[in-house]
Batch of 2 targets.
Target 1
Amino acid sequence: MSDTLTVAINRTRLHSVETPDGFETTGSFDIELENHGEAVHVHVHLDDALSEAASVEGINHHLRPGATKRIPVAVHDDERSVSGRLKVAAAYGAETRYVDLSLRAVRPTKPPVEVDAALGKPANREHGSRLGSGSGANPSGSSGSAGSGDVLSAGVFGGRDGVGRPAAALGVLVVLLAVLAVVTIDSPLLLVGAVAVLVGAVVAGYVSLR
């Protein structure tokens, strides 16, 4: 329900105009003209300052004897407060009154913005450092598996942890014996057998090295 500014016409004498000295409101309101006597013409007007924020529905009004009329005043700029003067004149200016009118700005209440308390806390650096140096990490950048040096040494010695070392030593011994047999045996048949043994030993040693 809008506020109402009441103006009494012809109450104390002919063409008299009675208004409050000041009127303050928020948003649109009504001017109520109450005629207490003979028919009369009433003029209402907003000054320049008020006209920038509000407008009155008609400025010239005819009141019949004893009639009451409501005149809407629409406020179309309610984001700022405006003050000015409202003019009310009866009988074409026979009597004029001015009302100090204040239009207060409408300030809608906005809900407060809720901020998560966790946003104000610093990041957990300890947790990040733990992720960067996990239990399975290797400072050299390699995984927990054996490096290239371990593989090379394992291949040379015939397997990891020296498992193939006796077999390699035995192969070397067989090669030496076969070479000695080739050099010392004169029989062609024995010589062929010795060569076969030698070839087999070489192949066995190559396989063990892989």
Note: The longest helix spans residues 188-209.
Target 2
Amino acid sequence: MKKFAGFLEFVREQGVVGLAVGFILGGSVSKVVSSLVKDIINPILGIFLGATGNLGSYSLKVGSSEILWGNFLSILIDFVIIAFVVYFGVKKLGLDKLDKKKEKK
């Protein structure tokens, strides 16, 4: 029973529950952003690039190799949007200040 109490104390002190919730929400945000990029942004960019279809399917053939620059661009757009969401979410919620307070103790 003593070991279990130590585990519960660890979970409370280290904010493991908050970390787990953040991890789950992060996965959900990632899925939403991926869908936004794949289903909305990529087709719009495809129209501006002079072709219809999914941007992720664009490639450049060099000899027998194929460079999937459209897929790379889609993943890059995903990353940038997720980075903005995380950055502004942390700033808006003031979570960056919480970490600094822990360091001062």
Note: The mean pLDDT is 75.
